[in-house]
Amino acid sequence: MAAPRVLHSTRCHETPIAIPQLGLELLVRVPPEATGGALTCFESTHAPGCGPPLHAHREAEVFYVLDGRYRFEVEGRRFPAEAGDVVSVPAGAAHAFVNVGERPGRLLVQLLPGLDAAAFFRGLAEALRGGAPDREALNAFGRRWHVEFLGPPLQAG
């Protein structure tokens, strides 16, 4: 039997993308071009009490909790997730999460199909630079990416 071939190997030397307004630091581990656009994989770190606003997008999303404790909401259903848990969000489903722990939490996230997560999160950081914009401004940014912001972030308490 022939040894498997490695078609692409990625070692991340990129500087993490920080979005302080969301308590987020993110590092793209597998860009979409490494998989022919099939998926993107990134690692995200969230400060306690932080997470994204309620949103939906055309990509399916799979979250693997590396560290910490989170509360997720998917299509109105809320549930806990902690280290070792996997949360799968279907394409188009409204979802959000929040780090409910006392320390930073980490997630490994896959988007299927792939999305240029580095460009998306850099653009989001720029959109939030002057403080949190209203939902209309967020949705103006999100249209390019087929992301709709539907509501505020979840609360940790």
How does this structure look, described?
- It is a single chain.
- This protein is mainly beta and 157 residues long.
- It contains two helices and eleven strands.
- The protein has helices at residues 117-128, 135-143; strands at 17-19, 24-30, 40-46, 53-57, 60-67, 69-74, 77-82, 86-89, 95-99, 105-112, 147-153.
- The chain has a six-stranded antiparallel β-sheet with strand order 1-2-3-10-5-8, with helices on one face.
- The longest helix is centred in the last third of the chain and has 12 residues, at 117-128.
- It is globular.
The coarse overall form would be globular
**Main sheet: which strands, in order across?**
1-2-3-10-5-8
Percent of residues in helices comes to: 10-25%
Give Rg in angstroms. 16 Å
SSE series = EEEEEEEEEEHHE
Q: How much of the polypeptide forms β-strand, as a percent range?
A: 35-45%
How many beta-strand segments? 11
For the largest beta-sheet, the strand count, sense and barrel status come to: 6 strands, antiparallel
User: Pairing-aware structural class of the strands and helices?
Assistant: mainly beta
Number of helices: 2
Mean pLDDT: 92
Unreliable stretches, pLDDT < 50, 5 or more residues? none
Distance between the termini: 55 Å
